Amino acid sequence: MTESSVIAGATLNWGVATDVGSVRSANQDSYCTDPPVFVVADGMGGQSAGDIASREAVAAMAGLAGRVPVTGDMLTSSLAEARERISKIEVDGRPPGTTLSGVIVTVQDSVPYWMVVNIGDSRTYRLDAGGFAQVTVDHSAIQELIDSGDINPSSANFHPIRNIVTRAILPKTDYPADVWLLPMVAGDRILVCSDGLTKEIEDGGIEEVLRTIEDPQAAADELVRTAIEAGGHDNVTVVIVDAIHADAPTDETAPLPVLRG
Description:
alpha+beta, Phosphatase 2c, domain 1, 6-stranded antiparallel sheet, 25% helix, PPM-type-like_dom_sf, PPM-type_phosphatase-like_dom, Serine/threonine-protein phosphatase
């Protein structure tokens, strides 16, 4: 069911859907939709206790719930807490890890902003009057090959190293997160998802669903359903947040990087 809240002077509606998929035996994705925090974490499937790691990371981020404005220092502290929580997970072999991506609603100069955070290869997208675009940049071996021009993006999902991430939340390594501030504008639609969605559906197909299904819960359900029908080779989690009203700045600037790692 679509939920709604007034946060930092903005009226937001949101929906969330998750599924274990058609192949995996357990869902290692976790999420938080506790305003002002809307994030998805994908436990690293090749490592033990990835499901616990994603839950611990989300629990750390949930500590920001109800706290507006959220500052960069507060976010940094939450990520440090996530690493600390994961370090306490008792496992045999390699320690678990997780990705994390999403938005935190905050305020600057009395107007609401999206604080976008990303570490790993889960993604955050924005659909607005200017179009549909991925805000985050994947921390992955594939993305490095794309950036260097060694492979075409269209072949990324079939490459043998497609599952290798270059940054994650891990207990013993302080990988930096990328963080951006985007001015919130009424009509914005934010999509946060694990790679179980983007490895099954091309961006064009995702955009079509976001444009044609108005209700965020119905759109989230449809994206997950479509990913499962396309193969469902991984867990799939989708969070959609709509800005129905926002006291946006009159000068709509480009995304402002505040902590680009």
